[in-house]
Structure formats: C-alpha cells, structure tokens
Amino acid sequence: MNRIYLIIGLVLLLFFQVFILNNINFLGYINPYLYVLFVFVFPVSKNRFPLLFMAFLYGLLVDLFSDSGGIHAFSLLFVAYIRILLIKTIFQKSDTDLSLFKLKSESFGKVFNYVVILTVIHHFILFSLANFSFQNFSGVLLNTLFSSVFTLILYFFGTFIFSKKSQ
Questions:
Q1: Residue 158: how many CB atoms within 10 A of its CB?
Q2: Could you give the CA distance from residue 66 to residue 89 in angstroms, rounded to a whole number?
Q3: Which domains does the chain have, with CATH numbers?
Q4: Cα distance between residue 35 and residue 136, in whole Å
Q5: What percentage of the chain has pLDDT greater than the value 90?
Q6: Contact of 116 with 152, CB cutoff 8 Å
Q7: 26 DSSP 8-state letter
Q8: What is the pLDDT of residue 132?
Q9: Where on the tree of life does the source sit, at the highest rank (predicted)?
Q10: Closest CA to 96 of 167, 50, 45, 133
Q11: CB 94 within 8 A of CB 88
C-alpha cells in the first residue's frame, strides 16, 4: 500500500513541478525545482540500478514537459548516483544498514545536511548546464543559491505539513 502512495505522490509531484513550479521565475533567480524530492523518497537499496533508471526517466519527463534538452535528467541522475555515498557518509550507515534506512527515523540535523547537499549539487549542475558558459558564472551561483533556498523552504514546509504527528 505504501508503494501505491509513493507512486501517486511522485506523479502528483511531477505535475506540480511541470504545471506550477516551472512557471515561477521570481526576480530572474528563483526557480524552485521540487522534483529533486524524488531522490530523497525513493527506497534505499544496495542495488542502484532501479533508482538510477527511475531518476533518469523522471528527469526525462520533466525535460519533455519543460523542453530543456536533458539537463533535468542529467542533474537528477547525478544526484541519484551520489545518494548512497552521502547516506553512508552523513548517516554513518554500512551496506547492511541500507535496507533498513528510513529518512524519517533520522535526526533533523543529519536530514537537513543530506537534503541541503543534494539540492545544492542538483541545482548547481542544472544551472551550469542551462548556462553552459563561464561568462555568467556569478549568475549560475546566484541561481543555485536562491533557487536552492526556495526549494528547501518548500521541501521542509511540505514535510512539516504532510508528516503524521506521532503520539
């Protein structure tokens, strides 16, 4: 039953990204890309292939709707690839612990670091590929900073609203 909720949530997230968030461009620097949440909620396992394949398809769907030529697919695929390394580093998990890993059961500080690092890396790659030039490197950094902050605010606000209160 949880997988059905996960699939429905990811489809709704895709539509929310494509039809609402892609139309936000505040002051030329703030473009929220909440679809990176896909990598955070995808179940963790030692076999990376399902995540990498699904991340590529998910990013490709965003690219198809955004007419962006593969930059979303590449940036999401890269973040999905380094996710296991970050889980092992930040959460101090071994290969045997990965099957039991749940983001919700970890401390807020570690989750915050994990989400911030992945989001900033994703956004930096995305804006670097979109710009594809060193002439506007300060613009890439500003886009990365402001869009990452706005995306993180949306992520943590949504997590706070949609999380179940434990008694």
A1: 14
A2: 34
A3: 2-162 (1.10.1760)
A4: 25
A5: 40
A6: yes
A7: B
A8: 82
A9: Bacteria
A10: 45
A11: yes
32 is written with which tokens?
């929220």
Burial of 109 (0-12, 13-18, 19+ CB in 10 A): exposed
pTM: 0.89
CB environment 5-15: b (16+ within 10 A), e (fewer):
eeeeebeebbe
Q: Which of 5, 6, 67, 59 lies closest to 33 in space, CA to CA?
A: 59
Q: What is the pLDDT of residues 26-42, one digit of tens each?
A: 777 778 899 998 898 88
> Tokens at residue 53, please?
């394949």
CA distances from 55 to 59, 101, 133, 138 (A): 6, 19, 26, 28
Bigger pLDDT: 27 or 67?
Answer: 67
